[in-house]
Design a protein that fits this description.
The complex is a heterodimer. By secondary structure, chain A is mostly beta strands. Chain A is 0% helix and 46% strand. Chain A is built from no helices and ten strands. In chain A, the strands form two sheets. In chain A, strands 2, 4, 5, 8, 9 and 10 form a six-stranded mixed β-sheet that branches. In chain A, strands 1-3-7-6 form a four-stranded antiparallel β-sheet, with no helix packed on it. The mean pLDDT of chain A is 92. The radius of gyration of chain B is 14 Å and the shape is globular. The N and C termini of chain B lie far apart (38 Å). Classes of the chains: A mainly beta, B mainly beta.
């Protein structure tokens, strides 16, 4: 597609439930990133995939968070046993060039845990 | 540990005047810096970047200045337009490190340009 697509755009879930967020990167982009933005805060790095290399998971806040990517296509971010502090906008981005050219972000998934 | 800081949560400017957004960083390993703009309900969009080998980069109305000794960068928008009203994020990267391409973002500054 023309841009990075994320689904769903909004998700309300009950505390303790699992959620799965999806990201379709721009075709041909080898790098894919997940960030989250909690209310009033900046973007927080979660995980990064680059081609076939092992992902950089250094930003995942707990073992309840995991992400997968199939080749150079779709990625899913899974949050198990959601907590209220997981409420945030989860942003996916993809890139095919040096970081100096920036990434292309999707519009995000707004997750609300009630 | 906030490695990239935008100490001004908001900035209000009159149309036609200059907007100056500031950003400070603490990690001396950062060598690429970027500015993103974000409108409500949209993802951030890339604006302009600068490598640490430069002290200035200009693109139309947008200029980024880097002062490595002070670990400070700024984004100048001139002339400011109402459509520039958005949240502006500063970001930094340590190119060539183990996390190639990973960006560390500041908290953002809300810019409001009044007609």
């Amino acid at each position: 597609g023309a841009g990075v697509s994320q689904s769903p755009s909004n998700k309300v879930t009950e505390k303790g439930k699992d959620v799965e967020l999806r990201c379709d990167p721009i075709s041909g982009h080898t790098a894919l990133y997940w960030y989250r933005q909690r209310l009033g805060q900046g973007l927080e790095f979660l995980i990064y995939f680059q081609g076939n290399s092992a992902p950089d998971k250094s930003g995942l806040p707990s073992d309840r968070f995991s992400a997968e990517r199939t080749g150079e296509s779709v990625s899913t971010l899974t949050i198990q046993r959601t907590q209220q502090e997981d409420s945030a906008v989860y942003l996916c981005a993809s890139s095919q060039r040096s970081v100096l050219y920036g990434y292309t972000f999707g519009s995000g998934t707004r997750l609300t845990v009630v | 540990d906030q490695q990239v800081k935008q100490n001004s949560p908001s900035l209000s400017v009159q149309e036609g005047r200059i907007s100056i957004l500031n950003c400070d960083y603490t990690n001396s390993m950062f060598d690429y810096f970027l500015w993103y703009k974000k409108y409500p309900a949209e993802g951030p969009t890339f604006l302009i970047s600068i490598s640490s080998i430069k002290d200035k980069n200009e693109d139309g109305r947008f200029t980024v200045f880097l002062n490595k000794s002070a670990k400070h960068l700024s984004l100048h928008i001139v002339p400011s337009q109402p459509g520039d009203s958005a949240v502006y994020f500063c970001a930094a990267s340590a190119e060539g490190g183990t996390s190639y391409g990973k960006l560390t973002f500041g908290q953002g500054t809300i810019l409001t340009v009044h007609p």
